[in-house]
Design a protein that fits this description.
- The protein is mainly α.
- The protein is built from 8 helices and no strands.
- Keywords: DNA-binding, Sigma factor, Transcription, Transcription regulation.
- This is RNA polymerase sigma factor.
């Protein structure tokens, strides 16, 4: 009743070639990158190959394979999303240190000037926004701590942060 290994290999190889383009497009819709989609499809096909002998209904193989590709693509996307890119303003707002490559003196100087420019721009904000934003940076981003410190409502903190971000963004757009 069980198929031989050679029959499974031949059947799966044919199936691979028949559905590769469709599975590539499915993966690309999730990961939004040509090379990443290729990686996802290869990984999904390896998973599918390892479990192909256990597939009972061969007529549902396309849907089964598509599910494996989608789940593999989602996993890949989640792993990539863990390493987010933040702007200088967002990094300072949330208290994150800015990292720059140290192998290039020019890049390091650029990042130091950007960081210094950000703090100069914060000093030009209206006093109520400046106080909220500075506390946001100092208190590791906890809005309730800021509200308690300044004796204002949580919604006032959020409003002032929003307005401060908006003003900083406009300032940086004017410069650039």
């Amino acid at each position: 009743m069980y198929e031989t290994s050679e029959a499974i290999d031949l059947d799966f190889t044919n199936y691979y070639h028949e559905h590769y383009n469709e599975m590539y497009l499915v993966a690309k819709r999730v990961v939004h990158s040509h090379y990443s989609a290729e990686d996802v499809v290869q990984e999904a096909y390896i998973k599918a190959y390892n479990n192909y002998g256990h597939l009972i209904e061969k007529s549902k193989c396309r849907a089964w394979l598509r599910t494996i590709v989608i789940r593999t693509a989602i996993d890949y996307y989640r792993k990539q999303s863990r390493y987010e890119t933040v702007s200088v303003e967002e990094g300072a707002e949330t208290g994150r240190l800015l990292q720059c490559p140290k192998n290039d003196v020019e890049n390091e100087l650029y990042w130091r000037f950007e960081q210094a420019g950000l703090f100069e721009k914060i000093e030009t904000l209206p006093e109520n926004m400046k106080a909220v934003l500075k506390l946001k940076i100092d208190t590791d981003g906890k809005d309730q701590d800021i509200a308690d410190e300044l004796n204002i409502s949580l919604s006032a903190v959020k409003t002032r942060l929003h307005r401060a971000r908006k003003l900083l963004k406009m300032e940086f757009e004017v410069v650039n």
